[in-house]
């Protein structure tokens, strides 16, 4: 399991100009999105760059829920700018876009598909050296500041996929809880659900010693290695924080303790799933996002329809964990208990139902849309949703329980309505 | 904070030849000690090197509890060998010696004192590139496979000190629980006490946001940053494993589950204290080891007198935590509870006594020598012990409660007899 460098504390962003000086950076690319470019987190970064006399250009054209086209736009900007360092200030959309821009600018002769995950892309290993990238997360969700993953929506195929390589992991993540204070309610909620699913999926993922085939050379180990004693520590710890603080963070923007804890939990869960992997909620979420029709979520200041990533993963979670519990029922029951279920008289064979019920109650309390139907899907869409899940093998094969197409169909169907 | 690269699993050592191939290594230095050179862990490494045709030389002259002289001997070997990679197979003594050999071979014009911690040495930052070092721990104690620290006994001054730099952190730690099976009882016990103290000290260390002065540039942050939300996770997790498994691991060499868990706990506590730091038990242990008279511990197959590191830290632990509890009583009480104390009716102001009692009972149950008197010290030695602690500022200043020379005297005196 590998390395993440993080720095935590209220206000630590003000040191970023010094960090860039220490890196010897002379032409810095600051990436963000249009909404954030007017908000305090970007301000804090720019103030520090100004204070330390760092020369920079801003790219604020990141698309919320990026696509291949929006990645390519950022890549063009990066190639032209000949930057020697990158700063990404934003949620997963910004950090992921910046990772891709850094990668392709460093590898100018590569085709876009070269590094995209197989089977959609060629999944080539990255052998070129990248420039330093400092990630400053402003949501409490993806943990992208700690992972070697960049996700985008492949418009042509109407499916999300990504790039996964240790090489694109940020050099440093600056976890400054002050940046969470400007997040509106639904962004706290949806990005928090992402943390919840990262923790639950990595904790229940196929154990590292049960993956097969075992790669013959350690260099060929996938980034996602299955659940293991190290990722378990991160996953459980993040889950405990989610249980204690997510509702508070959503309901009260002034609750700094809750928001700060969720900001850390996002990084912790990122370190966990960045090593162990995620499975069905994430695998099934990619077509749920990719096939979006007209859904426009509250609090997202954007002009296109989208299903926020955290919402797209959490809506199937009750069905998914009811399905996977057959394999590690104790872990599912333990998760339910952490999330508040009373398991004193629970039977181990009911672990899946108990966790599913606990999740449903959790979502209901937080006014989450009532299932896939509420965000615009119907039974008729299930074949397309299943078809979009099949190429997500990289994650779905980490499900502790193998799935047929019929199983996937049934999981989507069971997720149409939750309450 | 940085998290280390580790690989965990029974038998994973057999891949080490491939790892070295992947690193392109053509001249490998294998370091170990005379006792281990005949035991299964070294065998497993050599078999893998042979299988993958790796060219290597063995240095088995590592001193258990290394000194400046023994470091210098290993450094001479490394300089002569012009190696392009290192493998350390052993306990902290071997891994630390190998770190020093790698460092000084990469920096041939440096004086030995250049990199030694101030005020004893010059504490210069390391700017030369080192060769890859793979650490294969065979004790469950130091966590040296995850830290940037190398400790030795400075004979002239009769005091232990060390080298601390992220640059000497191993490239990879191979945590293979099979290597723990050959450890005799007292080595399991003493190295386990080291894990216990790493966890307790890093959990109770001065919080990261209370250190002063705050370095003006992040590049000047010390390796030991004080307790923080990330190191807390590792410290508590390691402490829980120690509570559950240390006694079992000591008493029953066949208890693979217990020994495997302690092997992981050692790395976990290493990640924790490697970022947060340790404080008084460690600061006071350096003169306890350095001033050793004639004590020869059971199970240590060596011909010089020595106080094993884990024993030297744990003997003062009851006195130390009774002293520090004034500052974070809740954390001390929480630690006592994890170690088995019933705290339902405990008063917070008794936290220190409760933790001290719990530790005394723990040590008594494990037949640990009855205090500093039992290993050859008397009241007359206290001034020398205090004098040897004063230069250990790098760690003692991380104590949550500041100490005068009188305080240190009283702590040594209280540690003369435990039961
Ligand atoms: N790389 C990974 O490891 C990883 C993991 C999970 C998800 N993802 C990807 O990350 C993306 C989702 O990222 P996200 O959930 O962080 O949200 P996001 O980056 O898509 O941002 C969502 C919205 O929140 C706004 N926003 C962000 N921070 C704000 C703040 N502090 N104050 C006010 N508004 C703020 C943004 O402007 C945007 O409108 C998806 O594309 C998803 O697939 C990546
Ligand atoms: N670098 C760090 O972060 C760090 C932290 C704490 C302590 N230390 C240092 O590490 C040293 C102590 O290391 P240690 O406690 O690991 O012990 P050690 O390396 O001194 O070994 C102790 C004895 O155990 C034997 N041994 C080791 N593994 C064995 C096995 N599997 N089977 C049989 N015998 C085995 C050795 O041959 C030796 O005789 C001290 O010098 C201490 O100061 C370093
Ligand atoms: Fe996610
Ligand atoms: Fe130690």
Structure description:
- The structure is a homodimer of 419-residue chains.
- Chain A has 419 residues and is α/β, with parallel strands linked by helices.
- Chain A folds into two domains: 6-179, Rossmann fold (3-Layer(aba) Sandwich); 184-414, Dehydroquinate synthase-like - alpha domain (Dehydroquinate synthase-like, alpha domain).
- The first copy, chain A, has helices at 16-22, 40-51, 68-81, 92-105, 185-204, 229-251, 256-276, 280-290, 309-314, 317-324, 329-338, 351-365, 382-389, 393-396, 405-414, and strands at 6-8, 28-33, 56-62, 85-90, 133-137, 149-154, 159-164, 172-175.
- In chain A, helix 5 packs parallel to helix 7 (256-276), helix 8 (280-290) crosses helix 13 and helix 10 runs antiparallel to helix 12.
- The longest helix of chain A is centred in the middle third of the chain and has 23 residues, at 229-251.
- In chain A, 57% of the residues are buried.
- Chains A and B meet through strand 1, helix 1, helix 6 and helix 7 of A and strand 1, helix 1 and helix 6 of B.
- The complex binds nicotinamide-adenine-dinucleotide (2 copies) and fe (ii) ion (2 copies).
- One fe (ii) ion is lined by residues 142, 194, 198, 282, 309, 313 of chain A.
Structural class assignment of chain A: alpha/beta
Instruction: Tell me what portion of residues of chain A adopts beta-strand conformation.
Output: 5-15%
Low-confidence stretches of chain A: none
Tally of individual domains of chain A: 2
Task: Write down the overall mean pLDDT of chain A.
Answer: 94
Total number of helices of chain A: 15
Which outline of chain A best applies?
Answer: globular
Q: Please state how the strands of the largest beta sheet of chain A are arranged side by side.
A: 1-8-5-4-2-3
Multimeric status of the protein = homodimer
